[in-house]
Amino acid sequence: MAVFVDEQTEAGISGLRALKDAGSPQWCWQTISYLQTIWKSLDLDYTRYIEAWAEAEEHKVWEKVPYVNPFGTKEEMLKQLALVDDKQAQRRMAVQPIAHRVRKRYGSGGDLEKRRGNTIEHLLERILAKSPEIFERYERGEFRSAPAAAQAAGVKWEKRQKTMTLSDNVERVADKLRSHYSPEQLRRIRERLDAEGE
Questions:
Q1: Nearest-angstrom CA–CA distance, 133 and 29
Q2: What average pLDDT does range 161-175 have in this prediction?
Q3: CB of 153 within 8 A of CB of 130?
Q4: Fewer CB within 10 Å, N- or C-terminus of the chain?
Q5: Closest listed residue to residue 146, CA positions, set 68, 190, 137
Q6: Domain residues of the chain, as ranges?
Q7: What does the alpha-carbon distance between residue 198 and residue 190 come to, in Å, rounded to a whole number?
């Protein structure tokens, strides 16, 4: 591991990445360093991150570094370095706004118990209070959802049931049913209604 850390450090010492031959080992290491830097920033610049990933994939950097014994596959490189793929970057981008709001509100102090609620933001405040490291992992896009992060943090959360208000407008009711249920569920509802009418 120390060998490729030295290679990476040495590659970043001299010259700009843009001035190196794209695909050269030095360019590959600098591209990896660039991706790591963008990922570590508080506000992920998704566009720059994805553009740099596209360049890394185009030149298959994992096949060129380390010099003596390359990573070989993208998956192996991701495993050994502080890098993530575009799916995790997308999750991180999706959670950034809510995570910032939670940090700001939680940072203002106050008793969490007095701000009871069943919202995702309240759940995230409880995660941040109980397990800041799990909250940070949530911010980095490591969890598929806030409830998954809550489970890892040992925070209980009861999912609110969806409610649907019905009206006398049959078309509106049909639209709501279509937006709420799958085609298979709608078929079963039709069968049940037909059976009740007999």
A1: 29
A2: 70
A3: yes
A4: C
A5: 137
A6: 2-83, 90-153, 162-198
A7: 13
- For the chain, the average pLDDT equals 82
Phi, then psi, of 100 in degrees rounded to 5: -65, -40
Q: How many CB atoms lie within 10 A of CB 173?
A: 14
Residues ≥6 apart with Cβ < 8 Å to 50: 86, 89
Query: Is 151 a residue whose pLDDT tops 70?
Result: yes
**57 or 110, which is more confident:** 57
pLDDT tops 80 at residue 39: yes
Mean per-residue pLDDT, 91-112: 78
Helices (H), 20-169: 25-40, 46-58, 74-80, 86-107, 120-130, 132-139, 146-153
176 sits in which H/E element: helix 170-180
Whether the predicted model's global pTM rises above the 0.85 cut? no
